[in-house]
# Entry
Amino acid sequence: MRIEAYNAVSQVYQSNTKMANTTNPVANSNDKFEISQTAKYYQVAKQAVSAAPDIREDKVADIKAKMSSGTYTVKSEDFADKVINNALPIIF
# Structure
């Protein structure tokens, strides 16, 4: 963990907190807060993703059954493509 980054964020947060405490609450009574339709869609999508399981048990059970029976095979080209596609963002 980088402590310097945490300290910088902490300092920014503290300066914003001090600024927020000095404002006049009556002057801000006309402020309005609206959430865009895109943000609402994003929130619904985020909730749906968080409700979904991390592991798809049906796929895992199918692959386990194929492995047990000896019928599960992986093409070497497919494996190489996956390795390369997952490694490229790390390299570059």
Q: What stands out?
A: DSSP finds four helices and no strands in the chain. Residues 40-92 form one domain. The chain has a mean pLDDT of 79.
